[in-house]
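Onboarding guide, step 5: your first structure request.
Type a short instruction followed by the sequence, for example:

Predict the 3D structure of this protein.
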Amino acid sequence: MKKLLEDSLNKLSIEYDEEKLSKLERFYELTVEKNKVMNLTAITEPEEFVIKHFADSLAILNFISFTPGMRAADLGTGGGFPGIPLAVFHPEVNFLLIDSVNKKLNFISEVAAELGINNVETLHGRAEDIGHMEEHREKYDYVFSRAVSNMSSLSELALGLVRVNGIFVAYKSENSSEEVKTAARAIQLMGGIVDSEKTIILPNSDIKRNFFFIKKSNTTPKKYPRKAGEPTRRPL
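The system replies with structure tokens like these:
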């Protein structure tokens, strides 16, 4: 695993050291062990894990820059992706990992404690509710999501957390451009604009990852996000 991880990071031009590699390797071991009793991921083979979880999570570093003290949120983090790998590589940034499944967050907290990842916090709840909490509404420089929801729903859930001039980054699969066009109204209503789209082929694979960068240009109207379930049932 270590050799493939090093090769993937080299191909992504991402700097690393032994400590970062060790933390990712141990994160993998903990995930596979916990996965025996909890459904964290369907991907457990080392090579596939490196490509589809680690490289995929970290590839975004080709396109963004962090500065010390920034706040970032990972919406729908699941087993901790992309939040944990990004936190390992950028300890100067404060990460909030959000999910509606508390037992997954408990696992992430255990991982962070064991690996000494001190820049991660977790928050259990639905994005529709968290988006209205004063301590989280429009407070984040970056919000990331690898969630599978359609772009209209995701934009409503995520952009309420992004500060004005901050960025929502949606991890999407190949051929997602049409989905983003369909979400144009929702993005605009939430105070965002589509800033750019970037595509990368994950190293040692033929997997294309699309990143959509939604810039927050205006404040989100107070009525958004709508009540729990509405963004998914009735996308804007």
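Each response can be followed by summary notes, for example: Residues 40 and 79 are 5 Å apart (CA to CA).
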